[in-house]
Amino acid sequence: MVASMRIVFGLLTFVTIGMIIGALFQLAFIRRLEDSYGSEFPTFGRVRRRQLDGYLQLPGGIHHWNDDKEAAILRLGYVKPEIISWSPRIIVLHNFLSMEECDYLRALAFPRLEISTVVDAKTGKGIKSNVRTSSGMFLSHEERKYPMVQAIEKRISVYSQIPVENGELVQVLRYEKSQFYKPHHDYFSDTFNLKRGGQRVATMLMYLSDNVEGGETYFPMAGTGECSCGGKMVKGLSVKPVKGDAILFWSLGLDGQSDPNSIHGGCEVLSGEKWSATKWMRQRSTS
Ligand code: PD2
Ligand code: ZN
After folding, report:
1. Can you tell me the mean pLDDT for 222-229?
2. Which residue, by CA, sits nearest to atom 10 of ligand 1?
3. Does the beta carbon of 274 lie inside 6 Å of ligand 1?
4. Does ligand 1 lie within 6 Å of residue 266's CB atom?
5. Backbone angles phi, psi at 34, to 5 degrees
6. Which of 83, 109, 155, 214 could form an SS bridge with 230, CB 3.0 to 4.6 Å?
């Protein structure tokens, strides 16, 4: 009896010790895998993981580690993408710009606003038209070097997956009461504008002001329902201007062909002032 108990006890001890050793080996194996992942792909190893965790949710909001400039430039943890349509392809990027960035772009633009023009399909030149009644201006090549503008351009490039150098200069627009931009395509119908940089692939439209009634960005061919546009109910999908939000939409399909469904417009502003900034991204470098 005592002998058989000893055998059972011995077996139990053997199995228990075996399990503990097995678990330790497993832990060591996982650790080694993590370390080799780190050395093969240095940016995703332990250091990188600590950086990716580098924004903390604190009562006052999200705070990036001081040394993680990249995360701060991309506003990781703040920007919230929302896909609203696949054809045409439209993504709303909530909190894309900080309030300071919005105010900064408006302040840069304000002294140089002029009546907006549209591209003449025959000559490719800008002409005044009742298609759009806003005023606007383009940031200069010099202003493109300012750190805040550079950060915004980098962010646009990363979120759109299109190189910075394919971007046109940022255009800032102001719509006052009763001003609008009739539905149009952002891709070119003339050959003149294709020469430098090729066709427009995508547009990042950033809203710089709040408290606007109307002024929605309107996509007649998107969605299956109705939406509000300048106080009227119309077929399609519209996005309300919210300060700091942006919409990213594609003028070319994945086949590289112009997408006629990308037609869009800026609805009439009913009250307040709508400010927006547009960045068009081309197929190739614009310089
Ligand atoms: O500012 C707008 O809402 C708007 C709407 C449609 C701007 C553009 N298009 C554009 O700049 O292409
Ligand atoms: Zn447009």
Report:
1. 97
2. 278
3. no
4. yes
5. -60, -45
6. 214
Half-sphere exposure of 260 (CA within 13 A, CB side): 0
Contact call for residues 275 and 242 (beta carbons, < 8 A): no
- Ligand 1: residue whose CA is nearest its atom 2: 266
Phi, psi at residue 254, to the nearest 5°? -65, -15
Asked whether 218 lines ligand 1 (CB < 6 A), one says: no
217 lines ligand 1 (CB under 6 A): yes
Q: Closest-lying ligand to the alpha carbon of 184?
A: 2
Query: pLDDT tens digits for 42-82?
Result: 343 444 444 444 455 555 666 666 668 999 999 999 999 99
Superfamily of domain 68-282: q2cbj1_9rhob like domain (2.60.120.620)
Cβ of 136 below 6 Å from ligand 1: no
Atom of ligand 1 nearest to the CA of 265: 6
Mean pLDDT of 15-43: 66
